[in-house]
Amino acid sequence: MQIEKAVAQMEEAFKAVQMPRPPFELENFIIGQHDTPEQQYAQCVVELQIKYDAIRRANLQKRRIALEIEELEKSGDPKDAIDAELKQIDTEEQERAMIGALREFEVLFGIWQSFPHQYTREELNAAQEEYWVKRLTRQAEQDLLASGRVSQGNQEALRLIGRAPLPQLDHVREVEQRYLEVGDVRVLMVVPTEEKAADGLPCVEDLVIPSGVQVKIYNVWGKSTAEAYNDAVMTLLNDSADFMLTVEDDTFPPPEALTRLLALAREKPRTIVGAWYPKRNEMREGAPIVIVDGKRQGLAADGWIHEVHTIPMGCTLFPAEVFLQTSQPWFVTTNHLTQDSFFSQKARDAGWKLLCDTSIRCRHIDRETGEVYK
User: Fold this and answer.
1) Which of 82, 132, 333, 356 could bond to 288 as cystine, CB 3.0-4.6 Å?
2) Any idea what DSSP says for residue 370?
3) Structural domain containing residue 21
């Protein structure tokens, strides 16, 4: 088959496919990509402006090429005749492109007409805050779905507009409301283990659950310590829980620990509160760290409540707000810091206090020897 005969049959097909961005794409991915009607309207107008200018330029270019072809055909030079044919191809390409451009303009104009209101510059400016809050929140949610954490760029953008770097931005207000109302308080009880706890979690079996408190036990297993706690925080926030209670599987709190820690957290706003337990050594040195005369040392159990420099995670109650007011990753283990030291620093930097009630004493058990430290 000769190419000319094939092309003759395809001229209408060539014209039919001309439209780089079909109506569905224009409506949903170009205009609809924005989170507010004001920004959708602005995008539509900008697209129409760009397309209108492109069409005008194309028409002028077509006229220019037509004049150039006419001049080349008059010269009688065989090379000019070839150039004239090449420019004719350019003209045909441009005519097909114009079909697509006009189709896009028609669709965009229809979208523009569908807006119930034509916005002024002042109205577009006034809607910017709502737009950026919605857009950055959506981007943060997409980050979480993709990688489990909000990217550094989106964290910084949210910070610049005065928002917490998480998608659950209304959670703080919800928690405050539940604080003021009579109703259930939700606690995520987190117990990290190396392997899945198939036979229960003895470390929390004796804890008394106060009236009006809903507890969900979350066994995080098979992860590094920092990864386990970061995973637990995401679960806390996605569940819209009010507190996260961390209990290590070798730490056994007294039965009343949760009741007393919740009472202390209510009494002391913007605090992380924990029970006391010793390190596993002969000195029975407290795991919480305080600063005395510029030096770090373990907190002694004297029966009083103390503000500490580092609060360990053996039996500690974290209000959900602290994670909304600090950036990810919350827990990191470095060559110099454990995950609890790392987050203690972040929380203190964000204006939170760390309190240890040394009258709530936990047993600390050596998994290998069974020796009990208390």
Assistant:
1) 356
2) -
3) 3-125
